[in-house]
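User: Here's a protein and a ligand (pyridoxal-5'-phosphate). What would the complex look like?
Assistant: Let me lay out the input and then the predicted complex.
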Amino acid sequence: MFKISKKVQSLPAYLFLEIDKAKRKARAEGRDIIDLGVGDPDQPTPDFIIQALNKAVSDSANHRYALDQGMPALRNAISGWYKRRFNVNLNSDTEVLPLIGSKEGIAHFPLAYLNQGDVSLVPDPCYPPYKGGTILAGGRVELLPLLESNSFLPDLTKIPFFTRKKAKIIFVNYPNNPTNACASDDFYKSLIEFATRNKIIIISDLAYSEMAYDGYKPRSLLEFDGARAVVIEFHSLSKTYNMTGWRIGWACGNTQLVSALAKVKSNLDSGIFSAVQLAGIAALEGPQEHIKSMCALYQERRDILVNGLVSLGWKPIKPKATFYVWIKIPNRTDSINFASRLLNEADIVATPGIGFGRYGEGYIRMALTVPKERIGLTLERLKKIS
Ligand SMILES: Cc1ncc(COP(=O)(O)O)c(C=O)c1O
């Protein structure tokens, strides 16, 4: 009787829900499923953050509506963290905006700048909300293929003149989900030059900045000259502090872009639960040692999985950052069929590349979110289907 809006109808299908259904069904049948599908840390939130939450939740002052723009102390903690981590100065009042998880801000940002038919330049494969947020804002998605031959970076020189002229936003995400690619300084410099010349906003998604190996330290785009004029950067406490369920992140960068997002959000939500904000302050200002051990843990898992896959004749891309291994599918099978085979024949869940966009076809993604013993078992099982 009621017709769903055209915008919602045109949202791409969320393949991950289908995978989740198949996984639940297999588990209900009593099968021992190894889930390498979700990018959700298996380690607990560090204890000092939980203690900060416990303390804050008992204080009734924190039970009321939170400030939309986040507590000043949280904004200060964010700018302090940025200064220590990237040597970038942020004005806590005008250049920082706490979010209910970075997904929330990323998906809402296009509402602030896109008019009907305006173009977003979206890398493909990508984290799905870049497309969803654009479509819900009435915008048009133009894909920027991320190809292995170009180190999974978009080739800005291939964007046609008329697309450039219609584009208002470009999304970038390095270290990248799902390809695990990292951006070079040269790429970031040419991106800022491209965006400045064409008056395009850069949305930089830095969710994985702290998850890196072999001494590599990802950079913030805001470290580069000229960035402050065109960049809004999104961060998350989810992966850095194992806080995916807590829903806290932030946007920072250009004042005008940050305040436009704040205006959108003031009509949509009423801030982050104050107790979670106080726990977020504890996370950002507390001891950071667990980040080192977290990276060591993922690095060990990475080496077991990647070396094991290589010895089976597979072609994994070894991550320098993120907890994703992006793997070229042997034998040119399509990614949905291949992922179904993994589930049906080996009780392994991996994400088909097509779920991240058409240029993800031909690949699958495995997340390093299970203990190393389970990764060993994964390799044993894969021997049978290789
Ligand atoms: C690339 C990327 N950006 C952003 C997010 C969202 O993180 P959150 O909303 O938990 O802050 C994720 C989560 O998986 C991600 O992979």
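Summary: The CA atoms of residues 32 and 347 lie 7 Å apart.
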